[in-house]
Specification:
Among the domains are: 86 residues, Ubiquitin-like (UB roll) (Roll); 119 residues, FAD/NAD(P)-binding domain (3-Layer(bba) Sandwich); 98 residues, no CATH class. Strand 11 and strand 12 form a beta hairpin. It is globular, with a radius of gyration of 26 Å. The chain contains 15 helices and 15 strands. It is an alpha/beta fold.
Length: 462
């Protein structure tokens, strides 16, 4: 038997759904409530397709193909229905994809991730994460006006998290002698200038295995590129030592240098000095932003040297800082302001908070692995069209068995956790008030496999 798929004649197998047929033929049909090999029921309608013969729309995840169908998966009408379905789901989705502090940081540094390590007692991990994301973190703390603290959600309850002081504390505890240089890849690169951009480019290239040398015309590194007297000399010296301990060589008082012996070059673009050159194109003097620009230049040079070209290769340059993949701006859900009920609830639950940072960890645990966010990004949704009408409270997180957490406000009620756990999750109420819940005593009946099925950050590993 056969059907037409976007005008192409294809065979189908008994028991095969339309979404399975399409994906087998290399046609991507998005879905949130479907998982291959798992029990599911159509609910999200994000996988909607249309039969051109009848004009009927139907969910691809639960419909079996029938002879004579002419299945349309990519017309504007299909796209519009999918967009509407996603926007309706977002209207009931109370979540921050990214913490406001990360969004406000000029370097895009993931502060909440650092605080998680810090609060878990992994001080060395938090310190390494900080250094990898900002390279000269203590210096930046003296120069930055802390927009991260101004938008911290904790201030809606009492006082913002002291982010700068945590960073300074972590940086001050750096033991340079404990830093282990990464293995080399046999290639040499040069970086012109020891500004925050130059140093971050050098640091990132060294992390990628390149033997890296920074050339600075002035008598001292970094100091000529920051506001005089703003940063203690001992702090600058400690930051430079940490960079050099990774294997970066910093040469000062340099005159004209020939770069012919180097495989590549990062420069400020004042003159073309190498056929394989990545240019730092920053039009800002904001130090944290310069760190991000340095990461991007390093990624561009690495792409050039690997034969993948330059272009916009640096737009996802950071491991924990930087832009979005493939130069696409990721959709970002946000709580907006807490309601009075949420504020009172959070204040009560935070009263006995023993975490050293006092951070609410308001970003999503699944922000890099959320299919709802992926779909919203794919369809170019910038913000939800419909106002949020959920009665579920933000950051109301509950334990859901060994090593699992559940945040109902992020749940899209797809039912995958319900249908794939025996005496575990269940539905409560009906209609618009329907929600997923885990009855007391059922915690032992759920396990970590459910996080792989959950399309959002509602279910997450603790």
């Amino acid at each position: 038997m056969y059907v037409y798929l976007n005008g192409r004649k294809v065979d189908f197998y008994d028991g095969e759904t339309v979404i399975e047929l399409a994906r087998r033929e290399g046609v991507e049909v998005p879905s949130l409530c479907y998982a291959r090999g798992a029990r599911h029921r159509a609910s999200c309608m994000v996988c909607s397709v249309r039969d051109r013969v009848t004009g009927q729309f139907f969910p691809a995840c639960s419909t079996l193909p029938a002879g004579g169908m002419d299945i349309d998966t990519d017309s504007e009408e299909v796209r519009q229905l999918r967009v509407m379905s996603i926007e309706l789901l977002l209207s009931d989705h109370r979540a921050d994809c990214e913490a406001p502090c990360k969004t406000a940081c000029p370097a895009g540094f993931d502060i909440a991730a650092m605080n998680r390590l810090y609060d878990a007692g992994d001080i060395d991990g938090a310190r390494e994460f900080l250094r990898d994301g900002l390279v000269v973190p203590a210096t930046l703390c003296y120069l930055c006006n802390a927009p991260c603290e101004r938008v911290c959600r904790r201030k809606d309850l009492d006082m913002p998290v002291g982010i700068r002081e945590i960073k300074k504390l972590l940086a001050a505890g750096t033991r340079a002698e404990a830093i282990v240089p990464p293995a080399g890849n046999g290639r040499r690169v040069a970086v012109v200038g020891s500004s925050p951009a130059g140093l971050s480019a050098a640091y990132r290239l060294r992390r990628l295995g390149y033997e890296t040398t920074v050339f600075e015309r002035a008598e001292a590194a970094l100091v000529p590129h920051i506001e005089a007297g703003k940063v203690p000399a001992a702090t600058v010296a400690a930051e430079l030592e940490a960079i050099e301990r990774t294997g970066v060589r910093i040469a000062t008082s340099c005159g004209e240098v020939s770069f012919g012996d180097y495989d590549g070059l990062v420069s400020d673009g004042s003159a073309a000095r190498h056929p394989r050159e990545a240019v730092i194109t920053a039009r800002t003097r904001q130090p944290a932003r310069l760190v991000l620009e340095g990461f991007r230049a390093a990624a561009k040079l690495a792409a050039i040297l690997s034969g993948k070209g330059g272009g916009d290769a640096g737009d996802n340059a950071g491991d924990n800082a930087g832009g979005d993949a493939d130069n696409v701006r990721l959709f970002g859900s946000t709580y907006g302001r807490f309601s009075e009920a949420e504020r009172l609830d959070l204040s009560e639950r935070s009263a006995g908070d023993k975490r050293p940072s006092r951070c609410l960890h308001c970003d999503c645990d699944r922000k890099t692995d959320c299919r709802l966010r992926d779909c919203a990004t794919r369809f170019g949704i910038k913000s939800p069209r419909y106002s949020r009408e959920t009665s579920l409270r933000a950051l109301d997180r509950r334990r859901a068995g060994a090593g699992l957490g559940f945040e109902a406000a992020k749940c899209i009620r797809c039912g995958l956790c319900v249908y794939n756990s025996e005496n575990g999750f269940t539905f409560a109420a009906r209609g618009f008030d329907m929600r997923v819940m885990l009855p007391p005593g059922n915690e032992a009946n759920v396990d970590g496999r459910l996080t792989e099925l959950c399309p959002t950050g509602a279910l997450y590993a603790l």
